[in-house]
Backbone:
């Protein structure tokens, strides 16, 4: 399987601390050594780093850990391969342009018998995750107008997610740079840090940060993961079937799909 | 304006030497300090690095200079902004997926009165270059079948390039990972290195390489640039209106559009 990490913030914020914790699990404290990737939105642009090697020993991951890249939305993934070879083309996060914006996607899980519909977007690699991403974008493109309101798009995403979730494990991170959509079938947790900020200690590395010294009182920074990254903070665990839409560090829409609904589509 | 660099090779080869020379021109030996980017194909995957800062002083560019990333096709760009703000979204090379492959594009020049046709692909940033790229892909998608032969696509690309060239400066690098299409209106040069390999010295940095020690006798590695990078080798200068299609280090198709043809479309 794999692990996921995302950030939503109301001010450009670096991901060094969380990224350092997650990437230890890529071949050191965890088995997710089959590649890693991270995408940082900067305005409408996206800065990506991908590697098909273990993140714990990657020179490029080391640079990302120590070189503060400021972003309001970031998505990160470390991979333990199941479907698809270990190669760059199969390394999350995946990115496509839709309606003049870059969309970024990372996924944890596996769907049984998933068959994507034909459409404009096609996978380049051989993972079911990338095929899922293309399927989502093809559905959005078909079913939403170009200038659709966020609520319209989210309603489509919830409907689609419910369908995927009925077919297997589907823990999702998806962003268009404006908002971040998250969906949990088995494991996801979040933490929102705001004033008064305190210290935090990573679970996977001997690293402590004092957020007080790195923030202003107005900052709101949320981190969403498949497994909590720190030992001394209280993470908010998603329910199975729960989705949350993040914008500027806050949950702006959310819901929980009951299990019977989740298998009805 | 800006400068371009591409590589086509018959074996995975790193770009450290040429990249080191080019990136000096991004704020040190040249004025192209408004961002830089590079895309390396690895199989069907692409590894990209982008920065909206000067390449000559970029920490990430330094990593790319010293960390050998092996690729058979690479495209690099350093920017001196004319159209479009200095920001990540306006930083070449640009990438889109078409027919299940990543396509990568970088451009030097400026077209007067260019108006892209509407289509599926849309620019995310505000450069005329990215609009051009989207226009090219929209035309290919409309006018070629999904499984078009390389010759069919190239014929379309030559026809399109002729039209763009009639509107201004259009020095182009475009690849789908299989081949690399290059088109020159004002400046482009190439060099093909093959056995017996010799040494080479950069024009922009005190760096010499002995390719003999870094290659095997079967290697064929071509580098295409807007301005030659070395002082002690003979570069093959493109004619205005000349295009060359590169594959595995060799020119596999080429042609020259006469000036009257170039303004006829």
Residues:
């Amino acid at each position: 399987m794999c692990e996921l990490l995302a950030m939503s913030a109301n001010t450009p914020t670096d991901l060094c601390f969380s990224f350092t914790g997650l990437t230890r699990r890529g071949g050191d404290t965890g088995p997710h050594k089959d590649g890693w990737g991270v995408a940082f939105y900067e305005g409408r642009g996206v800065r990506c780093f991908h590697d098909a090697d273990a993140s714990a020993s990657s020179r490029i991951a080391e640079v990302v850990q120590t070189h503060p890249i400021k972003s309001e939305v970031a998505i990160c993934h470390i991979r333990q391969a199941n479907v698809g070879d270990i190669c760059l083309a199969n390394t999350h996060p995946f990115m496509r342009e839709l309606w003049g914006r870059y969309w970024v996607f990372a996924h944890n899980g596996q769907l049984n018998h998933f068959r994507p519909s034909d459409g404009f977007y096609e996978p380049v690699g051989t993972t079911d995750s990338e095929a899922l991403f293309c399927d989502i974008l093809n559905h959005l493109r078909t079913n939403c107008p170009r200038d659709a309101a966020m609520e319209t798009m989210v309603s489509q995403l919830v409907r689609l997610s419910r369908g995927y979730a009925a077919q297997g494990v589907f823990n999702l991170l998806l962003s268009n740079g404006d908002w971040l959509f998250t969906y949990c079938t088995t494991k996801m947790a979040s933490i929102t840090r705001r004033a008064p900020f305190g210290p935090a200690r990573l679970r996977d590395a001997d690293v402590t940060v004092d957020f007080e010294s790195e923030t202003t009182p107005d900052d709101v920074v949320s981190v969403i993961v498949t497994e909590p990254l720190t030992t001394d903070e209280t993470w908010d665990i998603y329910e199975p079937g729960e989705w949350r839409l993040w914008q500027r560090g806050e949950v702006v829409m959310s819901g929980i799909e009951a299990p019977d609904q989740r298998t009805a589509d």
Notes: Chain A touches chain B through 32 residues (CB under 8 Å).
